[in-house]
Design goal:
It is a single chain. With 155 residues, the protein is an alpha+beta fold. 21% of the residues lie in helices and 35% in strands. The chain has two helices and nine strands. Strands 1, 2, 3, 4, 5, 6, 7, 8 and 9 form a nine-stranded antiparallel sheet that branches. The mean pLDDT is 93.
């Protein structure tokens, strides 16, 4: 696995923040993405990119996972209740690609952290998983997830 450095442009997203045990995430994410699509449909809006999940707090082995299920949207989209419109800022990121079941993402995260450590990079914000194909019609071993880490080099 190699590091790919990019500059991520700023991006407007509609998101739902949630907190649950890791084993309940698939169901919670399904509900959240359904809610996001309902709000977009009500506004006559379409997603401006693939769905994603951000992790604003570090995961702990015994605690709940805090995550934001999100969909990129066009300017002018408005929030509704638990659906908030926010901006992912422009900045340097490293990108890792994961191919395989979501249940194996932890292994890719471990390798990514090791590669960033060796490169002298520090994580500068919440990681973001971007889901490039649909788990409803893609075999688990063929699922593609782009993992982005905002980074900076220490002084």
């Amino acid at each position: 696995m190699s590091i790919s450095m990019e500059t991520r442009p700023s991006q407007t997203i509609a998101g739902v923040t949630d907190r649950c045990p890791l084993e309940e995430m698939p169901q919670a994410m399904g509900r959240n993405f359904g809610r996001l699509m309902a709000v977009l449909t009500e506004q006559g809006a379409a997603p401006a990119g693939p769905p994603m999940t951000l992790y604003p707090e570090p995961m702990t082995p015994d605690g709940p996972v805090v995550f934001v299920s999100a969909i990129p949207v066009q300017a002018g989209t408005t929030g509704d209740g638990d659906v908030e419109i926010t901006e992912i800022p422009e900045g340097p990121i490293v990108v890792f690609m994961h191919e395989g079941p979501y249940s194996e993402l932890g292994r890719t995260y471990g390798l990514a952290h090791e590669q960033m450590r060796k490169a002298g990079l520090l994580v500068g914000g919440p990681p973001c998983e971007i889901y490039l194909n649909d788990p409803g019609d893609t075999p688990p071993e063929r699922l593609l997830t782009r993992i982005e880490f905002p980074v900076f080099e220490p002084d």
